[in-house]
Design goal:
Pfam family, one: Abhydrolase_11
Number of domains: 1
GO molecular function: hydrolase activity
CATH topology: Rossmann fold
InterPro entries: AB_hydrolase_fold, KANL3/Tex30_Abhydrolase, NSL3/Tex30
Strand order of the largest sheet: 1-3-2-4-5-6-7
Helix content: 25-40%
Keywords: Hydrolase
Shape: globular
CATH superfamily: Alpha/Beta hydrolase fold, catalytic domain
Radius of gyration: 15 Å
CATH architecture: 3-Layer(aba) Sandwich
Protein name: Alpha/beta hydrolase fold domain-containing protein
Length: 192
């Protein structure tokens, strides 16, 4: 079972951001921590989700990916029972961004925040995951210009911000990353 940590600040605005970690990482990644702190400061709530395989101590996610998606959707359903949500924003870094994209419509998300979306495996641009970004849900992708996993192309519903000097870790300018994320998460949108 996935584990989550939910923070609801005083003066909660009705916006909930749900964030997931990368494949081998945890919710304490520099970019996730920076985004969490900045979004909480605006009055939005934040839930940090740890996938079941990481809760169990494993470093590699299970195959197939639908196991991650099912665990994620179960957490979102539980969060909907626990807190009143006017606007749901789902997101994560790397693998967590992929999960958020794949489940955005089913979760009823109004927006998707994708940190270091892994467009392709390093050195294999022919193996693209760009179809996972085609959700129809407004999406912000924050990527480094030196990310070995590639940088997606923008589309009508996908806005891409490329951060100079950043790699896949997005750890050099967490304040800038957080600033861009806050602007996107707190923008007025159709509630879901």
């Amino acid at each position: 079972m996935a584990r989550y940590n939910l923070d609801v600040p005083a003066g909660y605005t009705g916006t909930l951001l749900v964030l997931g970690h990368g494949a081998g990482g945890d919710v304490d990644a520099v970019d996730l921590v920076a985004v969490r702190a900045a979004v909480l400061a605006t009055g939005a709530a934040v839930a940090m989700v740890t996938q079941p395989y990481r809760v169990a101590g494993a470093r590699r996610p299970p195959a197939p990916a639908r196991q991650l998606d099912a665990a994620w959707l179960a957490v979102v359903a539980e969060l909907r029972r626990r807190v009143a949500i006017d606007t749901l924003v789902v997101g994560g870094r790397s693998s967590g961004a992929r999960v958020a994209c794949r489940t955005a419509v089913e979760a009823g998300a109004g927006r998707v925040l994708a940190l270091a979306f892994p467009l392709h495996p390093p050195g294999r641009p022919e193996v693209t995951r760009s179809d996972e970004l085609r959700t129809g849900v407004p999406t912000l992708v924050l990527s480094g210009d030196r990310d070995a996993f590639g940088v997606p192309e923008p589309s009508p519903t996908v806005h891409v911000e490329v951060l100079p000097g950043e790699t896949h870790s997005l750890s050099k300018a967490p304040h800038l990353l957080a600033q861009l994320a806050v602007a996107f998460v707190t923008t007025a949108a159709v509630a879901r």
